[in-house]
Amino acid sequence: MPAQHPRDQFSEALLSDAAPAEAQLYATYADAVTRGPEAARGGVGLGIPPELMGALGVAVVVTGHLVYDLIIDWAKDVVGEILKKYVVETGVAKLKEWLGTPKQNDLGNVLTADGKLAIMSVVEREALVAKLSADDTKALKDAVIKRLGL
Amino acid sequence: MSGNSGKTGLPEHSEIRAMRAEAIGRAALLCLVASIIPSLILASTWPDHLHDLIVPLGAPVSHILHAVMVYAALLGALLAAAALRDRRVAATGRRVSKPVAAVAEELGQSTGVTTDVRGYGGLLENGIEAASAGFRRIIWIGTLRERQCVVDPSRFRFAFAHELAHIASGDPVTERIVGTAYLTGALFIVAGIGRVILAVVGDPLSLMHRGFEAVVFAFRAALPALLPNLLAFGVLSALLFAESRSARRLREFHADAFAREVTGNDQAIAVSQREPTETTSILARYRATHPLTEDRAKALKALGVAWNADQNLFVLQAYFAATVLEVTFQLLFVNLSAGATTSAERATHFAGQLGRYPVTVLLVLAVAAALIMLAQHIVLGRFAMIAEDQQKSGLNPLVFARTAGLVGLGAFLALASSQSTYWNLTLANWNALRWVEVMSDELILHTLLFLASSASLTLTLGLGQAARIRRFRAVLAALPVVNLFAAGTWLYLR
Question: Cα separations (Å) of A7 from A14, A148, B97, B145, B439?
């Protein structure tokens, strides 16, 4: 069985923290992220959408992917200007270690204030897009803060 | 999981069985009308191309038979293409999550209906659909619908049971066949209209050398001949479409009733769940594939709501029966007896045609009788359920009056949109009394059809529960046909 990609490790861990009831759906959400809208299956449907109060689990997976990809972009900054802004000077090695095994590490004392702000901006934006309730938004933020050690 | 069963392991409520029986009857009638009438249209508009195409039988049987063969071939080709597409789609999708698989397993075992279950769609996909792909039966579950399994399990179980009902009834296959039959019929009608335009207007391209104005002039001059055809074909197409949607809405009520029986949940549908695009405008309701959400919510608690929801069934079935009668007149008195314009002439010609082409004439009469009986059988089944529901709250004569009125409306629409009516009125110089005098025999038969249909509805009321017994219903359904044969014999063979 292929090893799980670090991005998926991070997002699945976030999902377990923020929406434990939906943890079993991680594989579904991860697959859905890569798919756009699909054509109708040509079948006979129910005709009534499920009542939604903001799909927390979906928002968590999307946020996890975006945050991980954002940090990867910082790590790829060869010139170093971006890295200097978001990552403390002594934290680069720990950052790269986190990117490899996000479940076993965190980013405590790695990110600058700008770095933390950039990540939480992504989280707040995705919570708005997903129309999460205040409680769900807090659950998402708390999960990110906990997993990243912010 | 694979395979499906047409029967379930549940002791079903008799009303659910009645809904399924009506759905099957309506699908059969729709397929028959969507195939026979367009085939007749093609046979009458393209006779030279169809004459003895494969089997040398001579006119008019050759035209009709070969039109039916072309219809069957085209239908088969379209169904095969659809099946290939379905197979390609069936190969996509993803494995569903464990909670969903557990619900599918549990409900599959309790109902005796097993299917494949596949996930599909992006993050915002909220669909759940029962589909067929060859011999496979699949329930497709969208991303957010899988989420519903975890955050709102009782509603998810209802939704899944609803789709199992569609699988158990073969609804995906029925939809495929009915839709393809309708498409094939529509193509035939377009071919018929095209031929009429060519015949009446002449080849528009050959007029182009005289300028575009010449083409416009030719079309304008041909309008009096074209309009009746366009009206007749247009009304038929619209009513076939309306009936296919109406029958589909009934299947949704049936699936809801089945799901309620399986899950015991009569709160599963709430008005707050309606699609944002759902409107209550009349046009939207006729086009809708699902009943209004509020009707569905009420029907979960009182099945009588489902029986009363779609009253246009009575208009449509009466229209079909009257149209079948009109097409029968067309075949017997126009195609076979060209030039017969009065009752006496039609009687003389008919007796002669019966002697010369007994097989053709009797075949036409037998098919027409079967179609009229089937339409009447369906209407009686529905009316019996409405009457039974009404009897619980005290019988209201207005129920019968409303139904009879809708039946009359359907019959009137058939007559008013008939090409023959237009032509005969033209021949009578639009003198209504003269028209009635000349067409008295056909009008008598149309009136008898309506009166006998209404009489069988009245007897249904009188018989009460017994009206739901098959042999009684079959006898009542035969009443209009028996009357038509008796009157026809007196009018044309005395």
Answer: 11, 13, 20, 25, 81
Nearest of B372, B93, B60 to residue A42 by alpha carbon: B93
Across the 494 residues of chain B, what is the mean pLDDT of every consecutive 10-residue run? 42 75 87 86 83 73 85 93 86 91 94 91 89 88 92 93 92 90 90 80 69 77 75 82 88 92 85 70 83 88 83 86 88 65 81 83 89 90 83 71 89 86 84 87 92 88 70 87 92 84
Query: CA of B293 to nearest chain A CA: how many angstroms apart?
Result: 8
Give burial (CB, 10 Å; 0-12/13-18/19+) of B297.
Answer: buried
Rounded-to-integer distance, Cα A86 and Cα A109, Å = 11
**Nearest CA among B446, B454, B451, B199 for reference residue B329:** B446
The closest CB to that of A25, out of B86, B147, B290, belongs to: B147
Q: Are the C-beta atoms of residues B36 and B367 closer than 8 Å to each other?
A: yes
| Residue B78 pLDDT | 93
What phi, psi does A19 have (nearest 5°)?
Answer: -140, 70
Asked whether the beta carbons of A135 and A14 are under 8 A apart, the reply is: no
Cβ pair A45:B275 closer than 8 A: no
Token pair 């098959």 is found at: B470
Pick left, alpha or beta for residue B302 (phi over 0 → left; psi -120 to 50 → alpha; otherwise beta). Answer: beta
| CB-based burial, B325-342: b 16+ in 10 Å, e otherwise | bbbbbbbbbbbbbeebee
Which residues face B118 on adjacent strands? Answer: B140
DSSP A87: B
Question: Does the CB of B179 have a partner CB in chain A at under 8 Å?
Answer: no
pTM (predicted TM-score): 0.85
Instruction: Give the integer Cα–Cα distance in Å for A39 and A19.
Output: 29
Two structure tokens written together for B355? 């002697």
Strands B136-142 and B116-120: parallel
Which residue of chain A has the CA closest to B90? A41
Longest dimension (CA), chain A: 59
Q: Which residues are B130's β-sheet partners?
A: A44, B139
- What's the pLDDT at A29? 92
Q: Looking at beta carbons, which residues of chain B come within 8 Å of A38?
A: 120-122, 125
C-alpha triplet B153, A41, B70: angle, nearest 5° = 140
Give me the residue label for tokens 């991005």. A7
- Could you give the residue ranges of the DSSP H alpha helices within B115-211? 143-151, 153-169, 171-201, 204-207
Enter the tokens of residue A71: 């940090």
Alpha helices by DSSP H, listed for B170-292, are: 171-201, 204-207, 212-263, 282-287
Q: What are phi and psi of B138, to 5 degrees?
A: -130, 140
In the sheet with B136-142, reading across from the earlier edge strand, the strands are A44-45, B128-133, B136-142, B116-120
Average pLDDT of the segment spanning A105-134: 89
Is residue A145's pLDDT more than 90? yes
> Which residues, including other chains, have CB under 8 Å from residue B431's CB and lie 6 or more apart?
none
Q: Which residue in A has a C-alpha nearest to residue B91's C-alpha?
A: A41
Q: Beta B136-142 vs A44-45: how paired, if at all?
A: unpaired
ipTM of the complex in this document: 0.85
The whole-angstrom separation of Cα B42 and Cα B60 is 12
